[in-house]
Design goal:
Strand order of the largest sheet: 1-2
Strand content: under 5%
Largest sheet: 2 strands, antiparallel
Radius of gyration: 16 Å
Number of helices: 6
Structural class: mainly alpha
Helix content: 55-70%
């Protein structure tokens, strides 16, 4: 019988993988130009939003909880003019999802309620809440 930690980690891992599939399904049909086009002069392109989501996962879960050593450059997530190819963008996103799933698998029961500050003081609460944040980002 699985313990509670294994159930939580398994369910959240499934959720992250399913969400990643949805995102891939939305991005894969797009052309390079569509990925990097801004809907408005002040808006963000899909590419920049995916860079931002990848950065969030790598930083909050990978670096802060998993100890990966990832160093985030948040402003660049919205201003990077290199417009990387779709394959690279999705590969980096997939790698971030892999780090999340790996980090989830390493959590012990006591980790879920541990207070998490996000390193910059902007997000505080139990670690379980940090893992559950992307739920608000993607519609059902």
């Amino acid at each position: 019988m699985k313990n509670l930690s294994e159930v939580i980690a398994g369910d959240l891992s499934w959720h992250y993988r399913q969400t990643a599939e949805k995102i891939r399904g939305l991005v894969e049909p797009l052309s390079h130009e569509q990925i990097w086009a801004k809907p408005y002069s002040y808006g963000n392109s899909i590419g920049h939003l995916l860079l931002h989501l990848t950065g969030n996962l790598n930083y909050y879960i990978g670096a802060e909880i998993g100890g990966t050593g990832y160093v985030r450059n948040r402003p660049l997530e919205f201003s990077d003019a290199s417009n990387v190819q779709k394959e690279t963008l999705l590969k980096n996103f997939d790698n971030a999802i892999g780090i999340v799933v790996e980090t989830l698998g390493k959590q012990q029961e006591e980790n879920w309620a541990a207070v998490f500050s996000g390193g910059n003081g902007r997000r505080q609460g139990p670690a379980l809440g940090i893992f559950a944040l992307p739920d608000a980002l993607i519609p059902p």
